[in-house]
Amino acid sequence: MSEAAGEAQAHPRWPALGVLVFGACVIGFSGAFTRLTGTGPAAAGFWRLACALPLLAIMAKAATGAVGRPTRIALLVGLLFALDLGFWHYGLKYTSVAVSTVLSNLTPVVVTGFAWAVFKQRPGGLFLVAMAVAVGGAWMMGVGKGAGAPELNAPLGNALSLTTAFWYALYFLAVSQARRSMAASRLMFWSSLVGAPLLLAAAALMSEQLWPTTWPEIAACVGLGLIHIGGQGSIAWAMGRLPAALASVVVLVQPVVATYAGWLLFGEALGPLQAAGAVVALAGVVLAQWASRPSLTLPSGEGGRA
Prior knowledge:
By secondary structure, the chain is mostly helical. It has one domain. The chain is built from 14 helices and no strands. The protein has helices at 3-8, 13-27, 30-36, 41-64, 72-94, 97-104, 108-118, 125-143, 154-178, 184-205, 215-239, 244-250, 253-266, 272-291.
């Protein structure tokens, strides 16, 4: 029996859902912290992973006795996550935290389609309606206009953020596959170890500001590392216990949190359409959880499938 299979056997769904929602909420603050690092976009991604690595190594050793060797799928997860962070952080540079986070999270359509075709996780009709509601709410948040939102180059920022959704979808599916045979802590360690140098190389090629220069900026870099462990780690753990299509919709609470973080920290106030979109997106998440019970449950005895 694999690490993930033994870890995921005979457990109820609700604890995993709680961990997934917690992780998505924590990750919702990552866009704001990225802005606070004072570094370039790819450099901020490097610091996020680099600051997390020491604790991830300790967690992996505590959970499995050793970090072991990376598998091919773990290397792929690291590559996809580096692409995800790089494109998203550059999107954050040109548009608001809320819009960039919302657009980069429009992954359920891609994830559900792949999970249906590849993993045979066929969604029911009501689940597809719930997904449409959640995505519609996210769209309302993205197109709504609020006071204080930066527009350095909104079309470019939006395009980069939309491209992020593609990388995020592939990342989700790669994690889903990797969690069949790897514990979450080991997967997080190896994917971060792979992603960090890739982002550092990208930052150097783009001539970015590599180093934080003030104590608040240093604290933001460390905070990003903690967010990565607590948020992305929780999501990776939960994905070993939930269907990929359901997980991809539930994490749409992330843009809701990001929107409010942008408002609190940068004065990016919510407009009426954005506020309504947040309510709609959350309603879609709740409906998706209720609708997924009969059609997206894990097969009996099949552990680690996300």
